[in-house]
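[SOLVED] Predicted holo structure with zinc ion

Edit: marking solved, answer below. Original request kept for reference. I posted the sequence and ligand SMILES and asked for the 3D complex as structure tokens.
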Amino acid sequence: MADLVEKSPCAGLVPVAAGALRLSEIALGPITSVAPYKGQAAAVAAMLGAQGLGWPAPGQVIAQGAARVQWFGLDLALLIGVAPGAGLADHAALADQSDGWAVLRLEGAGAGDVLARLTPLDLRESIFGVGQTARSDLGHMAAAITRVEAEAYEIMGFRSMAGTLVHEMAAAMTRVAARRTSPAKGR
Amino acid sequence: MRLPCPLCGARDIREFSHMGAALARPDGGDWGPDWNDYLHNRDNPAGQTEELWYHGQGCGGWLVVTRDTVRHEVRGARLAGEGAGA
Ligand SMILES: [Zn+2]
């Protein structure tokens, strides 16, 4: 029988370091998209609530230990780190997306400057604070960006574009780091 | 230009696709002048317009955006699912 080896989406691509900036891969465990059927939003919220979670408002992440529910779009959320509870499939369309996403963590002083080169998101703390998540454009790719610390972001991109995603981010990191260490001080 | 998505907040134009005028769909399925207008005829107003914009690189929602073509002012946006058309 063939001996299959599981490869993570960014295997061989990360870690990347540039100055104080670090890019690494995160394994989130199971990822299930949850789209409540018409009229079932309250039932879905109650079922997730029973797991200590709930239904997220736009831009919200509800975490409970290693499990979390992350807003992912109009009437759409991701259940992460835990399998869907029994019966949830009766109220929502569920899709296993565990292997579909490349998940990266960008951290270090200037992490926001790196993202500012790649996404049109307004990254100011007053608009996009710690704990906020957003769907947006990152280097012309669809992405989900979550601010996990003041200078740390979690970035989800399509697994099929992991190489391009890391390439774009590494280039931006190098440029931001070069700016920061340049004798002529700038951004 | 930024559009105020009711879910995502003010977002850059490059996250959106323009999907045409937001028109009220005629009642009934029988062909007539109403359907002809709905499918083929468009006003080109100077001033307030209602347009459909798709937030494809964001929440995935369809928005009805109220915009002034003279002043280039974006007056607001709502989810199309909450009632499209003027
Ligand atoms: Zn949106």
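OP edit: Residues 31-98 of chain A form one domain. Thanks to everyone who chimed in.
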